[in-house]
Amino acid sequence: MSDSPARILCIDDDDADRMNLVAYLEDSGYIVLEAANGRAGLDVFRAEHPDLILVDLRMPVMGGMEVVAHMREEAPGVPVIVVSGAGILEEAVEALRRGAWDYVTKPVLDMRVLEHAVMKALERARLLDERQRYQERLEFEVEARTRELRVSNEQLRSTQSELEDKSLFLETLIESLPNPLFYKTLDGVYIGCNKAFSQLLGIPREKMVGRSARDLLPDHAYAQIIAGDCPSGSDAGEHSCVFDILGADGHIHTLALYKSTYSDSQGQVSGIVGTFLDITELKRKEAQIVHQATHDELTGLLNRFGMRQHVDRLIVGGQMSFALLVIDLDDFKTINDSLGHALGDRLLHKAAERIVELVGSQGIVGRPGGDEYVVLLYNVDAEAAHAMARRILDIFTDSLSVSGHEVYISLSIGIAVYPEDGDDAANLFKCCDIAMYRAKEEGGARAQRYLAAMQDVITSRLALEKNLRKALERGEFVLHYQPKVDIRTGAVTGMEALVRWVRDDGTIVPPQDFIPVAEKTGLIVALGEFVLREACRQMHAWQKRFGRLKMAVNISARQFQPGLPDTVASALADAGLDPGLLELEITETTMMRDLALTVSVLERLTTGGIAVAIDDFGTGHSSLYYLKTFPISSIKIDRSFVRDIPNDETDATIVTTVVSMGRNLGIGIVAEGVETEAQLDFLRSLECPEVQGYYFSKPLPPHAFEAWMENRLRV
């Protein structure tokens, strides 16, 4: 093979998988050819003659198994590596039996595993090619020598001289080879070797010639080095193997041995020639790559791939029950943002050490990534697993000291037990994740055993998420509008835009069902931008008809990012709406999450003429100091405080205080959830400026809101 980059043909009908492989291999310096099915792949091979083929097994037109069969017939020396899903192991084994060189499971989680397989196959092909060329050269010389022996006696002297010259050339050639080489009789007696072979074993050549491997080598090396020796011409062929041997330097060497027979002038096998390649360093690098592929770089623990391998081995062994615990740090993002990523990594390392120390020899601990750990407990039932989970929770009641910071963390733990909860690694990890997320939903800082009923909840949630994505694409979301009223005059001062999901069949999905899913998946960003743009468009359409009312739009925590002012400005510009007619409602929890971000975003919004209201006031963790500092136009009293006034003295006191505070600070107050005349009278007595609720109107679609407004104006 030349020194130019190896040419690799990638055959896969999955465009995404093929593009990922092509991109990685090209980044690794290879020249990559592509084909989307087996037939096209064979056409490319015959035209371009690549050095190696990566092929998926299941493809249209022609599958990978047929490609392997064709390659075995057409070019057996070209490596074929099967890259296919882990679920078709039997087909992969059959492909290897038919001539494939290696098998890598898809999806390829760590491309270094694939690259190692490619490097190993190319190296093996190169060595086979070198051996073939050497064998052909040796046979050529032997045949030339044999022909010369047939020369008549008259030419014997000159022929003898030529043979001696050629013999000297061969000896020089063999001696100059950097790889150890030997040749011996069929009985195993060494005829000769080069200096490299003698140095490897630490045995002088004069002591080696005339003796057998049995006399010279330890038992394990002897068994390897004579494997494949052929006693007769009918058994002539090639043999290769890999084994370890103690070298003369006192170190263990991993050797690849390649042997073949050679024949006499009558075509009878007369001896064996072999050469070694010291692959010690290659094996070391291979072990390093495998370690990197199965271990977490930060903690040195097994990663998700390594843990899955370990679980698979336990299941195949079938000799014990065991439990999996998936551990997730609660609200680690906030801690990481506060400490910085470097200290966050130290915290993760210290947490891992604490868990490893507790688990000890009862199991192994892994870190799949992020703020998650996995504990595999041997020979335990569900009760023992839950007891260990409680002990893990207990050891984190004490703080972790990280570079002078005392950090308290809590954990959410999901538990699954083999074989009750799953019969393979994938299902067990899935069950653990489901249980862990249930623990988080219940407030975190707890352990939760997987229950079959949880799967139904997850399935329902996934279906809702899928339908939510489709609903965004299909435009199934609409806005309803609820008016805000001046409590003194009864005039409408504005409206709040509220999103509703109306499916194709006319059914309405309640906001409390889909909003949490949208927030969790991040779809709330796209949904929120739709609400913002549609509300601005509708307000512009209503401006001439109803005057300068103010449109209120809710902003989620996910939307509250540095780019929010630009998004709002774009929506206003596209709708042609005056910024003074838009009010953004933001929860106090969102505002208090990152104070520097809040100040920056609010200043940009209010400088642009946009009003900002604090939504659900009193339900979060606000500070009166920041309330005074933030450029807030109004406060919305949460409906939970309005619901029981005036009968509930505590709620009445809270509402009275908030209204008074707003008046003293010069901040507008809107009471949400007003449904009764008694509530309205109480708020009127406090001189609460604005109210909103079902007492006046439920949220209405545009045409119904217009009719309500027309009727209101007439009254």
Short synopsis of the structure:
49% of the residues lie in helices and 22% in strands.
List the helices and strands and how they pair.
Layout (H helix, E strand, L loop, with lengths): L6 E5 L3 H13 L3 E5 L2 H11 L3 E4 L8 H11 L5 E6 L3 H10 L3 E5 L4 H39 L6 H21 L4 E5 L4 E4 L1 H7 L3 H4 L4 H4 L2 H8 L11 E9 L5 E12 L5 E10 L1 H15 L9 H14 L4 E8 L2 H8 L1 H19 L3 E7 L2 E7 L3 H14 L4 E3 L2 E3 L3 E8 L6 H17 L4 E4 L2 H23 L2 E10 L5 E11 L5 E2 L1 H11 L1 H24 L3 E6 L8 H12 L6 E6 H6 L1 H13 L3 E7 L6 H6 L4 E4 L1 H4 L6 H17 L2 E4 L5 H9 L4 E2 L10 H13 L1
Parallel strand pairs: 1-2, 1-3, 3-4, 4-5, 16-17, 19-21, 21-22, 22-23, 23-24, 24-25, 25-26
Antiparallel strand pairs: 6-7, 6-10, 8-9, 9-10, 11-13, 11-16, 12-13, 14-15, 18-19, 18-26, 19-20
Helix pairs in contact: 2-3, 3-4, 5-6, 13-14, 14-15, 17-18, 18-19, 19-20
Textual characterization of the structure:
Keywords: Phosphoprotein. InterPro entries: Biofilm_reg_signaling (IPR052155), CheY-like_superfamily (IPR011006), EAL_dom (IPR001633), EAL_sf (IPR035919), GGDEF_dom (IPR000160), Nucleotide_cyclase (IPR029787), PAS (IPR000014), PAS-assoc_C (IPR000700). This is Response regulator/sensory box/GGDEF domain/EAL domain protein. By secondary structure, the protein is α/β, with parallel strands linked by helices. The chain folds into four domains: about 5-110, Rossmann fold (3-Layer(aba) Sandwich); about 160-285, PAS domain (Beta-Lactamase); about 295-450, 2-Layer Sandwich (Alpha-Beta Plaits), CATH 3.30.70.270; about 465-715, TIM Barrel. The protein contains 27 helices and 26 strands. The strands form five sheets. The chain has an eight-stranded mixed beta barrel, surrounded by four helices. β6 (about 180-185) and β7 form a beta hairpin. α13 packs across α14 (about 340-360). The radius of gyration is 38 Å and the shape is elongated. About 30% of the residues are buried. Residues about 230-235 have low confidence and may be disordered.
